[in-house]
Write a structure and sequence with these properties.
16 strands; elongated; 218 residues; 3-stranded antiparallel β-sheet
């Protein structure tokens, strides 16, 4: 074999080796930063979330407005109330909704909830809150001129994004949060809608010791 051919093969092999050594580097994704620590206090205290103002659920051109809504829950006992790298989650009772009206004249809505609901808090700026609706955990049924059924989270649990604000009392806010839905019914029902927009503000009180506030921190 000639010297020229030997050199050419050596260079090709070196190039191939270099490519093989570089491939894993270029294919490896940069790891995402870990979520910050979260602590919810007071540990083990029960709380009550009460609607402030009104809650709206809009599917297509139809908006259902409720002025009464309540849910209860408990902060996890220590050390479960602290997560060094992520959110802290608490089970909550299915929120009740009453005193509800529809944007469509002659249509009366009724909201029912069921299943295992939860809310999780992640400390940050802002503090984020995620309410998890179980499969089929919220159903709006209307009667009158339009008989419709709106089912939230129809295919599996759905996460509803919100924010938490520490204060006296603290608040849990959902602003234009998207919730997957299916709509069935006849004339006047928004059957093409696949998502509903949810807006609500809840004030949260410590029912174990009303002199204290539920607080989310690092």
């Amino acid at each position: 074999m000639s010297r020229t051919r030997t050199t050419t093969l050596a260079l090709a092999a070196a190039a191939a080796a270099g490519a093989m050594s570089l491939a894993p580097v270029s294919a490896t994704a940069t790891p995402l930063p870990l979520a910050g620590s979260t602590t919810v206090t007071p540990a083990g205290h029960a709380f009550k979330a009460t609607l402030s103002g009104k809650a709206t659920l809009k599917a297509g051109s139809v908006t259902v407005t409720c002025t009464v809504s309540v849910s209860t829950g408990t902060v996890p006992a220590a050390p479960g109330n602290t997560n060094p790298a992520g959110p802290v989650s608490s089970p909550i009772s299915p929120p009740t909704y009453s005193s509800c009206t529809s944007s469509v004249w002659g249509v009366t809505p009724t909201v029912t909830t069921s299943g295992a609901w939860s809310v999780s808090m992640q400390n940050g700026s802002p503090i984020t809150a995620t309410m998890t609706v179980p499969t089929g955990g919220l159903v709006v049924h209307t009667t009158g001129l339009a008989v419709c059924t709106v089912t939230a989270a129809p295919s599996g649990p759905a996460n509803v994004a919100g924010t938490w604000t520490n204060g006296a009392p603290p608040s849990l806010t959902f602003t234009n949060a998207s919730v997957p839905v299916t709509v069935t019914g006849g004339f006047g029902c928004p059957t093409s809608a696949t998502a509903s927009i949810f807006n609500a503000v809840y004030k949260v009180t410590d029912t174990t010791n009303p002199a204290q506030q539920i607080t989310v921190g690092p």
